[in-house]
Write a structure and sequence with these properties.
- The chain is of the alpha/beta class.
- The chain folds into two domains: 13-241, Phosphoenolpyruvate-binding domains (TIM Barrel), CATH 3.20.20; 246-272.
- The chain has eleven helices and eight strands.
- It has helices spanning 13-21, 34-42, 54-57, 69-82, 101-113, 127-138, 154-157, 167-183, 195-204, 225-228, 246-263, and strands at residues 26-30, 47-50, 87-91, 119-121, 143-148, 187-191, 209-212, 220-223.
- An eight-stranded parallel beta barrel has the order 1-2-3-4-5-6-7-8, surrounded by seven helices.
- The longest helix has 18 residues, at 246-263.
Length: 281
């Protein structure tokens, strides 16, 4: 059965805040190209995040560290060309916001001016990071924060793991989330934190929280699109729920195509062009 496409109004930062105020859940997914972004937008997703996870999911890097600004801009452009309704957010990659305030604002502005995004996302909440976020907000660049597990810190962390499991770490994450709100972010991603901690942060903050591996008490949820549809292999985190297995469907289609080519079945008469015969005078 074909479901009708959503025709709701364009998602804005104030409308996301309105969803939190009305206790309506916010739906977010990643996208890295035109066709997937088109599907997400037509399905009625609220936020399309062009995550630096594209480095691992699409470009084959071991982690997100090698992803460049030019790669992020390239993919965000493709996504923005497809999206008409959802809020497109560009993820600022590693070392694009770690130097001067001027360079940080210049990099962030590229997402809006060149790539068509309407906001950026920044990982972490160190004092210096908070100052840079405040400067971006002052420059009228909407910023989404990100605490808990921050993948760009992988070399410091050693490996991906749940954050906030002990009292001190949990207290630090709550404090970081509050500081991000004070710095002017319009929403905060909570990644891989215990459910009760995510719930406490969600109650504390006035701005929406978007969870990934943070349980059901957040204001919204985000997943990697390729994980959601089973297009990213069999190894995936516990928090991922697969709603389809497109990898198997595509693999089977390629196997059948290869078999028909080798046996001379494809192309057949119905897939072959012939010179048109001239009509007799």
């Amino acid at each position: 059965m074909n479901m009708p496409e959503k025709t709701e109004s364009v998602v804005t930062i104030p409308s996301l805040q309105g969803k939190k105020d009305r206790r309506e859940r916010i739906v977010a997914l990643t996208a890295y190209d035109f066709p997937s972004a088109l599907i997400l937008d037509r399905a009625g997703v609220d936020i399309v995040l062009v995550g630096d996870s594209l480095g691992m999911v699409v470009l084959g890097y071991e982690n997100t560290i090698p992803v460049t600004m030019d790669e992020m801009i390239h993919h965000t452009k493709a996504v923005s060309r497809a999206v008409k309704r959802a809020l497109v957010i560009g993820d600022m990659p590693y070392f694009s916001f770690h130097q001067t305030e001027e360079l940080t604002i210049a990099n962030a502005s590229r997402f809006l001016k060149e790539a068509g995004a309407r906001a950026v996302k920044v990982e972490g909440a160190s004092d210096r990071r908070l100052g840079l976020i405040a400067a971006m907000v002052e420059a009228e660049i909407p910023v989404m924060g990100h605490v808990g597990l921050t993948p760009q810190s992988i070399h410091h962390l050693g490996h991906f793991r749940v954050r906030g499991g002990d009292e001190d770490e949990a207290r630090k994450i709550i404090e970081d989330a509050r500081k991000l709100e004070q710095a002017g972010v319009f929403a905060v991603i909570l990644e891989c934190v215990p459910e009760d901690l995510a719930g406490a942060i969600t109650k504390t903050l006035r701005v929406p929280t978007i969870g990934i591996g943070a349980g059901p008490l957040c204001d919204g949820q985000v997943l990697v699109f390729h994980d959601l549809v089973g297009f990213s292999g069999d190894d995936h985190p516990k928090f991922v729920k697969r709603y389809a297995d497109v990898q198997s469907v595509i693999r089977q289609a390629v196997i059948q195509y290869a078999d028909e080519v080798r046996k001379g079945i494809f192309p057949d008469e119905s897939h072959t062009y012939h010179p048109q015969k001239k009509a007799k005078s």
